[in-house]
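Predict the 3D structure for this chain.
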Amino acid sequence: MNSLWFFDDVNLFKVLCPHKFKNYKKDHTFDAYKKQDYIYFEQDFANKVYLIEKGKVKIGYYNEDGVEVVKAILTKGELFGETAILGDDTREEFAQSVDNATSICPVGVDTMHNLMRDNQTFSFKVYKVIGFKLKKLERRLQLLLFKDAKTRLLEFLHELCTDYGYDCDQTGDRVVNHPYTQKDIASLIGTSRPTLNVLLNELRDENVLEFKRKEIRIYKKSA
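Done. Predicted structure below.
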């Protein structure tokens, strides 16, 4: 696996969560959320970054018509709210729990800055992760604006292979074991779940892929 959200094969949660650090462990607690609970809203004060210990978190915003736009659905070990590190005072998105037992590690911006100041190599890697994440989100939003639903799905499957698959750079079948439900995928590509089912069935009938609940096999001849 070669996920954008990991660097040097290290889970960000394991590296950054303050309960791992002697100076912060005593005063640190985890935050628990149920399904549809909000971690923060748009325009909330941005004074923390967050790491997911378990569960899933949806990141998104509402457009001018009040329609929800999902930017990302994040899973265990992943980082969000990171623009606070870069100096943003308020949130430009919301973060909402997708699971009934989501556990979050909050990290104060000052704590994060201290950790980064004390280790320049670590600081560089954090900024690198943030940069990759912003590029990935920008690309996804461009797909939502300018591509049809089938193209968005194919691009997303390629992204899934990069993040959660193996043999993705080979000439054989590419197998993707991913954490998303069909509802998650539909939200991420900006379509409905029934439309996603139609598209997946079309691709299966075209012998492009086969799919199960948490596994997608992309056949060799579609590469």
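The first helix runs from residue 12 to 16.
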